[in-house]
Amino acid sequence: MFRLEARISTPAWFNLALPLLAIAATLILCSGLIALAGAGVIEAYGVMFSASLGDSYAITETLVRATPMIFTGLAVAVAFRAKFWNIGAEGQLLAGAVASCAVGAIPMPGPLAMLLMAGAGAAAGAAVALIPATLRVKFKVDDVVSSLLLNSVIFYALMALIEGPWKDSFSGYPISPPIEDTANFPVLMEGTRLHLGVVVALIAAPIVWFLIVRTTLGFRIRVTGENPEAARYGGISVERVLLSTALLSGALAGLAGVGEVGGVHFQVMSDISPGYGYSGIVVAMLARLNPLGVVPAAIFLAAVMTGAEAMSRATGVPAFLSDVIQGTALLAMLVALLFTAYRIRRIGVA
Amino acid sequence: MPPPLIEMRGITKSFGAVRANEAIDLQVAPGEILGLLGENGAGKTTLMNVLFGAYAPDAGEILIEGRPVTINSSADALAAGIGMVHQHFHLAPRLSVLENLLIGIPGKSGRIDRAGGLARLGEIGRQHGLTLDPDLPVAALSVGEQQRLEIVKALFRGARLLILDEPTAVLAPSEIDGLFAALRSMAAQGLGIIFISHKLNEVRALTHRCVVLRHGRVAGRVDTPANTTSSEMARLMCGHEIVPPARGPSTPGAAVLTIESISTSRHSGMALRDVSLFVRAGEILGIAGVSGNGQRALAEVISGVLAPDAGRMTIAGKAVSQFSPRAVQALGLGRIPEDRMTTGLVTNLPLADSMVLPRIGTAAFSNKGLLRPDAIRAFAEAQIKAYDIRCPGPMTRAGALSGGNLQKALLARELAFDPKVLIVSQPTRGLDIGAARFIHEKFLDMRAKGCGIIVIGEDLEELLMLCDRIAVMYEGRIAGTLDSADATIARLGLMMTGAGQAEEAA
User: Fold this and answer.
1) Is B360's CB within 8 Å of A3's CB?
2) ipTM of the predicted structure?
3) B6-238, what's its fold?
4) Which residue in A71, A143, A285, B278 could disulfide with B255, CB within 3.0 to 4.6 Å?
């Protein structure tokens, strides 16, 4: 028999071991589904790996895919540190995409356009995140529910825009007019889609880490998240911290939308995000809310997504497996977190 | 001779390198109240958690009525007739008293047996004087009543051995008498009781026999606690003599904190009504009273957390214009909260973070919004050394420290900035003798240095020892203030019930 026992302390190497353990458990659990679909497990994972990380082009594609999830992962990690339960990164991403696309369509010099797109996208995401945060601070409305429901409101508002007044008159599809060519983010490597936004995302992670770990704002965010009462008695305005966190979190999620518009799609369509906002939650949890961990976690999920399509073509396993892996990874990580507080002990049976 | 109700033989339990329990033997006979005495960290709670099935022992065995048993979970313990009342209650606040009792009890064909539960509740209430309103939600109960519910819950499940982990720590003096009466009644009817405490007078008053733990081992056994002196038991517990600190004479200076006619309205507990008081430099003012008579509101107003509706407050001669923790702190106020875990510390973050929390925005620990990690670390390390805070280092999770060490850390973080006024609530609640002694000495040091200290407490002996003057709170007012030379426990106790005012008027 086994039993769980409370732990006195958590070893530091758990920070690395737990996500790896969760990923291993996920791949083992999902191998059953691959076998069920009639494919070889090793072969399927092999195709998945080589198509996502096997050569330099594949790696650039995976990085391009990881970029929005780095931003949404950072957005969620920052919010969850303060226990501001922002499930609305998806809507904030869409708001950021719309705002940056609107700005990018105005003719102006390229660098200026890109800067303004980033500013507008971040501002739009921040404004959206401010809604659930304000509702919570002023009226004690549950932020999980309000931020989640806001995603639908924003998605359908976007649909209404691109099917109506904002529809591109030169296209038969419900898509927005494209941004100016000069506003397209520069490609960093000939023959790939590796755009400027990827680098910005990779730089954003250490900046956010610095902000959380080394600034007074970050200190206040951490303390407020862990014990709002102690924070209040310690002279911290909990309300102000929650609102600042929301602004920061929303701005990061908004930047995810900016990168997709400026570096990948150059316009807004209904499926501009295949749920990057929600994937951000998985990324942040895998990273244990550490901004530096967000980068490898996002790359893992991106590799699963790009790899799943190739695996589907090569072995006939449906590409939906990538969604299953994502969901399983979140569950596995939540289970793995149990080990930070408990240990398993074998007990004899008398 | 019948076998003991419960017997633990050679119980050993380690956490990593720490031996929490080593070869401990212990027995409880039916009808016996056994005291389990020891300082914090001596291994009392670990031993009881082994008995209650929360930890598996590394070695040793447990026998119930002479038969060896294995207890792997609280369900096993309950089935074996062991009930435990923890320091922190395990109740569902939004459910009623009766519903809490029935949690986990199989009903009749999937339905809750309300009538049966009510009958049992009434029966237990009559037997031991443990009455509770079955329909009241637990959130509406006082702490004492919640504890009563925990005891009733254990009896409800047929416990024959009841373990109480520091049950008096959360009770007012009047409630303690009620608890003891109930425990004696249960023992008279053949129940075994293990009473965990580090308060010697309680152990002497209540228990039949007593086991003293120190550093995880049995340091001694006392067969007649009532006839054994406190100092003798204290010596067993600490391993050396404990002499209470002496409060020398002092010459108080000017008032460092004044409160004039302060009233509050918005407050979850008792509000303040026209409260005026002052404390001078080099003086300790005690605030006595049964808990819930406005002490919390008073502490919150002085700490700047609660803005009063009316009245004035000055700190070090300056009027407090804005009631915020930062503003009163800037004027020279230090605060040691009543509830270390909820309003003082951040248990999940490193100890260093908690130690700099109230002053993180000051130049000592940050500069233009950037933290100064080296300064924070150096400060924490210096205080850990100066106050002998036992922990692996400043980056240890605060929650891993014992209560005494946490209280030292809170003391260190305030005293390091030489406050002109210090407000403390229940400064030694839950602390062992050694740690309490240390805290008392620090207060007397601060008094000698000219700090004005306000001590809010329920332990009258402690207040009489520490304070120069003692004010008694009753129903949100100051019922009267005595010089401690004139104060006795009897006189203070009378004032605490509201009778003091009549006496003074007469």
Assistant:
1) no
2) 0.84
3) Rossmann fold (3.40.50)
4) B278
